[in-house]
Amino acid sequence: MENFFVKQIVDITNGQLLCGDEHTEVLDIKSDSRVLNKQDLFVPLIGEKVDAHIYLEDALFNCGAAFTMRHKEATKKMLESKAAVIAVEDTLTAMQRVAEEIRNRYDLPIIGVTGSVGKTTTREMIYTALATEKSVFQTYKNYNSQVGVPLTMAKLDKTYELAVLEMGISEFGEMPRLAAMIRPNTAVVTCIGAAHIENFKTKENTCREKLRIADYMTEDDIIYLNGDDAVLRAYENELNHKLVWYGMSDFCDYRAENIHIEKNMQAFDMITPNGRYNVKMIALGEHNVRNALVAVAVAGQYGIKEEEALKALQSFKGQRQQVINTKYFTIIDSTYNASPDSMQANLKALRDMSCEGRRIAVLADMLELGENGKEYHSQVGKYVKECNIDYLIGYGPLSKEIIDTAEIESFHAKSLDEVVKHLQMMAKPNDIVLFMGSNGMKLKDAMKEFL
C-alpha cells in the first residue's frame, strides 16, 4: 500500500474526517487492534459477538488513522491521540472500497483461485511454479474472505509482477464483491463440493456463485476448470471466456495418467499441449495431482517453462496436508479443514501409501454441511470401507455416521482426550495415522498431544 493519505481515503469512502491530519500517510490496513503500527488504518468491524468499536479509542494511540461508524463527534480521548478518525456508513464497505482503489493503482495480472475445496493448496502450488522466475504476491495467511481480501490487498506494492489470490465465499452475493476488489485476469475453479451447502442449498447454486469470479473478466481472459467435476462441466456453455480444462478426463487440456504412490511419493504422467512428463511429488493424493496440473498450466500462461514449474513442485509441501515421519509412526496431518471430497481424497492417499503396519483414520466431524450432514458422513463411511482402512477413530456426533457405515473395527471418542488416550493404547510401530476433520473440531490439538 503506497501513496495513500487520509484525504484520499476520505474521498474514496465518501467519509467525513472527524479529527486528525488529512495529510497522514497510511501504509497498511488492520482489523486487529492488538497488532497496530503507527501508520496503519484501523478498521473496527461489527461481528456477531463483538463490535470492535469498543477498542477504537485505545487503538487510536497506536495507529495513524481509523474508521468509525458509531461516533458522529470526536471524543476528547480521540483528540488526544492525534490520529485521524474517518466516519463512514459501514466500516467493512469502506475497507473494501479502499481495496478496489489499491487494485486500480496496480496494473499487474492477478490470478484468482476459488472452489469448494483446495483453494489454498492450489494457490500455493501456482505461486511456487510462478516464483521460479517471477516476483509473485500471494494471499496473506488465509485472508480470502470479505474481510481478508482487503487486508491482503493492503500489503500489495509495486515490487511484484504477478499476484495469486484466494477468493473464498460462504454466502450469496459475496463473490461479486470479491471480484470487484480483485478483478482477476485469470481464474481457477478447483471443484464444486458440499462446503457451505448449508447456505447455498445446492451444488448448482454454489457453482453459479463461484463462477461469478468472471464478472470483471474479458472474453480473452482464461478460466481454468476442473474437468473431472460434473457440476462445472454442466456450466461450460454459460461462460463467454477462453476455457482450459485440467484433470484425469480424456478431454482435458492438461491431463494426468498412471497415477500411483511410489515410495510414498505421488507419481503420475502429466500430458500437456507441449509434451508428456513423468512426475513425482511429496504432496500426496489425486487432488494434489489436479493442483499440480493447473499450476503448470497457469505458469505456462505467464511464460514459465513446464520443466521448471514441475521441478519446483516436486518438493512442494504446502500448509494444508503435512506428512510427519516420526521414529514410530507416519502421521498425515489434514486437520485444517474437511469436506466430503477432500476427506475421500485423503483416505485414498492413505490407502495407496506403502505401509508395514496398519492404516488408521482419525476422522472428526465435517461442519457446515446443512441438513444433509448425516448423509455426507455416511458417504465417507462407505469410502472408508472401500479403501480397506484397518482401524477408524471417530470424534464428534456426526462421525458416528462414518463409523456405522464403514463397518470396520472402530472407536467413537467422546472427547479429544479420549482420541489421544485410545490412539496411544492401540497404535503400534509402523502404523500410518491420518488425522482429518473440520478446523472447528480442533483435532490438531489431539494430533499434537499424540505426537
- What class do helices, strands and sheet pairing give? alpha/beta
- Characterize the overall form: globular
Name of the level-1 CATH class of the largest domain: Alpha Beta
Query: What is the rounded Rg?
Result: 24 Å
Corresponding CATH superfamily of the largest domain: Mur-like, catalytic domain
β content, as a range? 15-25%
Question: Poorly predicted ranges (pLDDT <50, ≥5 residues)?
Answer: none
Q: Which sequence of strands runs across the widest sheet?
A: 9-10-8-11-12-13-14-15-16
Proportion in helices: 25-40%
Largest beta-sheet details: 9 strands, mixed
In CATH, the topology of the largest domain is named UDP-N-acetylmuramoyl-L-alanine:D-glutamate ligase
Number of helices: 17
Q: Give the averaged pLDDT, no decimals.
A: 92
Number of domains: 3
Number of strands: 22
Spatial separation of the terminal alpha carbons: 41 Å
Corresponding CATH architecture of the largest domain: 3-Layer(aba) Sandwich
Write down the oligomeric state: single chain
Annotation keywords:
single chain; 451 residues; alpha/beta; Udp-n-acetylmuramoylalanyl-d-glutamate--2,6- Diaminopimelate Ligase, Chain: A, domain 1; UDP-N-acetylmuramoyl-L-alanine:D-glutamate ligase; 3 domains; 6-stranded mixed β-sheet
